[in-house]
Specification:
Shape: globular
Oligomer: single chain
Strand content: under 5%
Largest sheet: none
Distance between the termini: 20 Å
Radius of gyration: 19 Å
Number of helices: 13
Structural class: mainly alpha
Length: 296
Amino acid sequence: MARSQAVAVALVMTIGILWGLNWPAVKFILGSVPPWTFRALAFTLGALLLAVIARRAGEDLRVERQERNPMIVASLLTVFGFNVFTAFGQLLTETSKAAIIAFTMPMWAALFAAIFLGEKFGLNRLASLLLGMAGLATLLAADANSFIAHPAGFLFMLGAAVSWAAGTVLLKARDWTIAPLARSAWLVGVSAIPAWAGAVLFEQPWMLNMPDASVLAVFAFHVIGPVALCYAAWVVLVSRLPASTAAIGTLLIPVVGVLSSSLLLGDVLTLDKIIALALIVSSVALTFVQPTQPRG
């Protein structure tokens, strides 16, 4: 049990750091590469990398017939929907604000898990969820007028949160026969198809100029870390933990996202952000506190 919990903590830390740093990275890339083309390239390269890793780990990439349709739906929700919505949301919203809205995801995941999976909350998980939501509410309260005045960015990010939450619950709802790394490769790879359709229809990627070396370097980080490693870690994490617990663990991501956006993009780190980050860190820590079992 202790080893399993240590692995879960390590996965959450990996996801939290890399996906957190991904927020300013994506904002930087979108300054040179339009959103559909950016996501199409990232999904394609990330899926190929995951497929290579899965094969070297001895996993079979074949998907059973009965799992193909659920795989497509899970991919469109977990990967495609979340990433495309966040790309457009970050074009219309300050990066730190975008991260805040996106990570209302645990609230939606908890709701969907309770409705569709029958998951129940213990007191520690309920307290963790409330702390995390309080942290996000603290950040949102400071910019309520801005969200009301410019709703498009807010709606894109809210759509991203709901999409990711629904996909997480769908992943948890099945006992998949395909192994985690192979499953991750398919989740990312399927998403490349509609992304390329959007790129061809709206952006004509063959007409775009080659980005400079700094953009290419950040793009390489995005593909290797946030796309390949993090989606593999996320699939493993969801398979090990209840959907609502896995979702609450991701509240570490906006901590890194807000801090890195402040350092790398110049977003102002105000007192309300510091208070909110403290609440979110407490929420993540409480997620992994095991309740004391009464002695017989």
